[in-house]
């Protein structure tokens, strides 16, 4: 930690963010996989009746994956997930730290938190959109890529640059508002808690995690429609060349509820992942002298 303490603050924020993103990405990958399968328009997963009890689609997907791909199948797409989320979280936190330093203040108001969260996530989202496309296709089970580099080459050869950035609009419409809303709810919830509680080692982590859960639930629900559009566009770019065509298909096929397919596993993953990432980030930044 003494060596890290001498690094530039933005680089320390990147390291802390990447470190926090690694644990949460690995732990919650099964939820992301199930979410992608639920949103795949070719997989009509509905509630199933087992022993006279209704099993929701999420449980059905879990059971099918374990039955056909074994437990390890729940972590399908782990390589692109880590390749996207770990540097993505690092870029987000370092961008956020840099933007805060430029603004010259640590305690953010509601609108400042929204704006900085949107800018920071947009910067990392644009940089990593090719990995996002590969991650979605890996998890869907529709595409059979052998490696990350092989997937990049295959997509570029078949679809060109357009294939590597498909779904960028919905991705930013999902991630940027999520981060802005999340940061606003997170900072405002923290502000409502007495500072002496946050500075107490025995309660700080629990409070940071709780703030993250509250913020994550609200932000996840608000941005789920954009996530559904993104998944459809990235899995079937020929069928859905733009967000409007995907929206029309979803509305005609499923109605309004179609925009919330996969909402439960996504809400669980994004909420717990973001809460854990922020909790670990807060602890690491305190230990390396960033705060």
From TrEMBL:
It catalyses: glycine(in) = glycine(out). This is Mitochondrial glycine transporter. One of its GO terms (cellular component) is mitochondrial inner membrane. HAMAP family: SLC25A38. It is found in: Mitochondrion inner membrane. Its main location: mitochondrion. InterPro entries: Hem25/SLC25A38, MCP_transmembrane. Solcar repeats lie at residues 8-102, 108-192, 203-287. It comes from Parnassius apollo. Keywords: Membrane, Mitochondrion, Mitochondrion inner membrane, Repeat, Transmembrane, Transmembrane helix, Transport. It is a multi-pass membrane protein. Belongs to the mitochondrial carrier (TC 2.A.29) family. SLC25A38 subfamily. GO terms for biological process: glycine import into mitochondrion. Mitochondrial glycine transporter that imports glycine into the mitochondrial matrix. Plays an important role in providing glycine for the first enzymatic step in heme biosynthesis, the condensation of glycine with succinyl-CoA to produce 5-aminolevulinate (ALA) in the miochondrial matrix. One of its GO terms (molecular function) is glycine transmembrane transporter activity. The keyword Repeat applies.
């Amino acid at each position: 930690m003494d060596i890290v303490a001498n690094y530039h603050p933005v680089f320390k924020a990147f390291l802390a963010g990447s470190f926090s993103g690694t644990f949460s990405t690995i732990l919650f990958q099964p939820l992301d996989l199930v979410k992608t399968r639920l949103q795949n328009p070719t997989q009509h997963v509905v509630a199933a009746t087992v022993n006279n009890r209704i099993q929701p689609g999420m449980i059905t997907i879990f059971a099918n994956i374990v039955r056909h791909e074994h437990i390890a199948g729940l972590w399908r797409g782990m390589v692109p997930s880590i390749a996207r989320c770990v540097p993505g979280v690092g870029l987000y936190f370092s961008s956020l730290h840099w933007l805060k330093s430029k603004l010259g203040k640590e305690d953010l108001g509601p609108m400042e938190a929204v704006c900085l969260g949107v800018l920071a996530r947009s910067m990392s989202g644009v940089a990593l959109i090719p990995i996002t496309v590969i991650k979605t296709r890996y998890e869907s089970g529709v595409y059979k890529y052998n490696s990350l580099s092989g997937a990049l080459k295959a997509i570029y050869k078949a679809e060109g640059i357009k294939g590597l950035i498909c779904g960028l609009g919905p991705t930013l419409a999902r991630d940027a508002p999520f981060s802005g809303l999340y940061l606003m709810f997170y900072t405002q919830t923290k502000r409502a808690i007495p500072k002496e509680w946050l500075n107490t080692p025995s309660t700080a982590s629990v409070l940071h995690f709780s703030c993250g859960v509250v913020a994550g639930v609200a932000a996840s629900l608000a941005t789920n429609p954009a996530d559904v559009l993104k998944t459809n566009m990235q899995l079937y770019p020929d069928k859905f060349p733009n967000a409007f065509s995907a929206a029309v298909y979803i509305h005609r096929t499923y109605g309004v509820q179609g925009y919330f397919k996969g909402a439960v596993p996504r809400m669980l993953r994004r909420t717990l992942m973001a809460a854990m990432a922020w909790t670990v980030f807060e602890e690491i930044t305190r230990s390396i002298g960033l705060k």
